[in-house]
Amino acid sequence: MAAIETKNITLPKEVAQQVVTKARDTSTIATLSPSTPVLFKDMTHMLFSKEPEAEFVGEGAQKSASEAAFTPVPGEIHKAQVTVRLSDEVKWADEDSQLGIIDAIVDASSAAVGRALDYGIYHAINPSTGTAATGMTALTAGANSVTATTDASADLDSLVAAVNESYDIDGIALSKTWANELRKIRVKSTGARLYPEIPLNLQVGNLDGIAAATSGTVSGSLAKTATNVLAILGQFGLIKWGIVRDLGLDVIETGDPDGLGDLKRLNQIAYRTEVVYSWAVLDPKGFAVLKKASA
Question: Which residues form the Phage capsid-like C-terminal domain (predicted)?
Answer without folding.
Answer: 9-291
